[in-house]
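Q: I'm writing up a methods section and want to include an example of the input and output format. Could you take the sequence below and give the corresponding predicted structure tokens, formatted cleanly so I can copy it straight into the document?
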Amino acid sequence: MNLKRFFGGLLTILGIVGLIYTAVIFAGTSGETRDIKSLIIFGILGIVFFMSGISLVRATKDES
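A: Here is the clean output for your methods example:
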């Protein structure tokens, strides 16, 4: 079992979930300061997790 590839997939899924959650918050926001802060925090975390997961999956070679 390739642990790096599994962890990369997990990070990618967490990043997608974070970006979807950001979109849900964005759709229901009323423009308050608290809403904007949560949009920024979840959006940045989602992007970071997604990009690091994708790069980890791509950089890991298959070993049989």
